Amino acid sequence: MTTPAGKRSDIFKKQVTPYVYLLPTIILMLILLIIPIIMVIRYSFFDNVIINKNPTFVGLENFAKVLTDPTFLVAIKNTLYFVIISIIAHLVIGMFFAMLLNTRYLGNKTKGIFRVIYALPWMFTASVIAILWKMMMNPNGIINYLLQAGGLISQNIEWLGSRQFALFAVTLINIWSGYPFYMISILAGLQGISTDLYEASALDGANAVQTFTRITIPQLKPILVSLLMLDFVWTLQQFALIWMTTGGGPINATETISTYIYKQGFTKYQYSMASAGAVILLVVCTIIAIFYVRQQKARD
After folding, report:
1. 272 and 153: one domain?
2. C-alpha to C-alpha distance for 51 and 271, rounded to whole angstroms
3. How many CB atoms lie within 10 A of CB 130?
4. Which class for 195: exposed (0-12), middle (13-18), buried (19 or more C-beta within 10 A)?
5. How many CB atoms lie within 10 A of CB 86?
6. Are 26 and 162 found together in one domain?
7. Chain segment 92-102, per-residue pLDDT in tens
8. What digits encode the pLDDT tens for the residues 38-51?
9. What residues contact residue 269 under an 8 Å CB cut-off, 6+ apart?
């Protein structure tokens, strides 16, 4: 017969056991995530960190310098263009291909082939995507050749080397590499919508536009909201693709917040300025993350 002390011991073991299994992950998160974030936040309030063994506390001075830096203001403008255009294009293209792959007019084998083709950009790493598009956007590359063959341009364009076209070019690359995530997610949502809803709407005489706006979009709303929030954070933090294609140039034409922070820290060795910029980016991403968590809870 179990004694009261034994019962308490069993209850304690049951309560502690889950945390024992989580302990390795918690330790890794603490070392690789929590501590670095705390260090960066601390650095943002000091001057000459890392280089100087005894940095000077300057309060919000680093944030004031960053927010009044003309280059940072240009980076904000470029980032907003890059993020907004990318998200809208991801949504439109992803929705189009998802609905195309969900149609009953294509056979299963045909759908399978197109799913692989449409999902290919998502399978490439940033380095492969950068090399591929730098070759295609070269003045003597395939893109200029096709545009000239179609009579759309009369001379070769430096897509990634021109201040006029560089930001548009990297945005186009990001759109191409990111739409499959939307396509796959939306396709899964479409396949989860009951066909009874569409059959009932057909009996009521609803046309394609009414069916799309009254049934498809409302049913996909939770998925779309989640996709938009996640994509906003991911695109806001996009660094590798921009750095490997243009490096933030030419003359800050493609400078974003991520490349600005990197240059401040590892090119100019202004770690305090870089930390202040990183904290600003962290605050924005945290706000979006809070909305995302609330949306997920409401959905559950």
Report:
1. yes
2. 9
3. 22
4. exposed
5. 25
6. no
7. 999 999 988 88
8. 999 999 999 877 77
9. 51
